[in-house]
């Protein structure tokens, strides 16, 4: 297990380096002058002022030199400083990361709490009216964009019930009730896709397990139906769901970019959204690296959990 974990960490770091390199080169390929964009409020800026500002930001160097400097700083976990306010990028990330992690965790837990019962019920009532309704709901949930669903929720809840989420974000330490109320709608909008994916995967997996020979043997030995479903079939059916969760984390993290901007949540999603508009390269790169690191870490945890859920799996 230690060798497997070390090998996966090495692969993860390699992937993270490739992601950082690709993002760096892509940002440099975007048309437009970052310096002139920053000096837009000073239309009378001279060429000397533009050159001076480019030198301050390190943009006067060749792209290859900028890339080598960026990678050497990245090895030391130095993401540089923001072009906008000159603050270290790591400070921006540490301030915004907790809100994003809370929103993502709420969405993931809500998706599991809704998706697992729906998947189990659909499998136990195969081809029934309930099963067909669940399957349609799952397809719709996987097809609807989360930002569009969020806008519908905001509009209809305001029109039908006169209710809207708080406009000012409060951290859990400041006001837990306001915090949860603020995150309820975006968490649900993010969770719908996860719920649909978990429900479909669990239904398919449970039907396959329930039709296997070892389940017939367990039932022939007189085990209760509860024991058959939740001890034997349920545990084996969860393995594909764990694989799906690793992918759902990436979808949830990607969804936070737009939803945090819609709901005025001061997280990393809104941070990277604003940074892209302002061409704040260091902030964009720092956020992308953190997002990639979280995705790799979650998938590593999922791989380790395989051996816990199914004792037959050994690395």
H/E element order: HHHHHHHHHHHH
Distance between the termini: 6 Å
Helix content: over 70%
- Shape summary: globular
The averaged pLDDT comes out at 83
**Main β-sheet description:** none
Q: Tell me the β content.
A: under 5%
Overview of this structure, please?
With 315 residues, the chain is mainly alpha-helical. It has 12 helices and no strands. The longest helix has 38 residues. The chain is globular and about 85 Å long. Its main location: membrane. It is a multi-pass membrane protein. Keywords: Cell membrane, Membrane, Transmembrane, Transmembrane helix, Transport.
Task: List the SSEs and their pairings.
Blueprint: H1 2-29, H2 34-38, H3 47-57, H4 63-75, H5 89-124, H6 129-143, H7 146-161, H8 176-210, H9 213-220, H10 225-262, H11 268-278, H12 281-309
Concise summary:
The protein has helices at about 1-30, 35-40, 45-55, 65-75, 90-125, 130-145, 145-160, 175-210, 215-220, 225-260, 270-280, 280-310. It has about 325 residues and is mainly α.
């Amino acid at each position: 297990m230690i060798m497997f974990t070390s090998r996966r960490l090495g692969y993860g770091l390699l992937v993270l380096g490739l992601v950082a390199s690709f993002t760096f080169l892509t940002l440099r390929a975007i048309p437009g002058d970052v310096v002139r964009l920053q000096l837009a409020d000073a239309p009378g800026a001279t060429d000397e002022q533009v050159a001076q500002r480019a030198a301050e930001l390190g943009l006067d160097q060749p792209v290859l030199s900028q890339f080598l400097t960026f990678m050497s700083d990245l090895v030391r976990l130095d993401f540089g400083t923001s072009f906008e306010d000159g603050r270290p990028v790591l400070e921006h990330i540490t301030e915004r990361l907790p809100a994003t992690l809370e929103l993502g965790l709420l969405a993931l837990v809500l998706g599991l709490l809704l998706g697992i019962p729906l998947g189990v019920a659909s499998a136990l009532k195969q081809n029934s009216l309930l099963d067909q309704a669940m399957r349609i709901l799952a397809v719709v949930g996987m097809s609807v964009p989360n930002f569009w669903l969020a806008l519908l929720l905001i509009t209809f809840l305001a029109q039908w019930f006169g209710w809207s989420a708080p406009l000012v974000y409060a951290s859990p330490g400041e006001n837990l009730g306001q915090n949860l109320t603020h995150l309820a709608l975006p968490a649900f909008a993010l969770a719908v896709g996860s719920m649909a994916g978990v429900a479909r995967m669990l239904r398919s997996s449970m039907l396959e397990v329930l039709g296997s020979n070892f389940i017939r043997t367990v039932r022939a030995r007189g085990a209760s139906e509860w024991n058959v479903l939740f001890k034997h079939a349920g545990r084996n059916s969860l393995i594909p769901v764990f694989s799906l969760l690793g992918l759902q984390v990436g979808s949830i993290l990607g969804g936070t970019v737009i939803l945090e901007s819609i709901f005025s949540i001061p997280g990393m999603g809104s941070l990277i959204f604003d940074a892209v508009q302002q061409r704040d390269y260091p902030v964009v790169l720092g956020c992308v690296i953190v997002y990639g690191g979280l995705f790799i870490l979650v998938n590593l945890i999922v791989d380790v959990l395989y051996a816990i859920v199914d004792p037959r799996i050994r690395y």
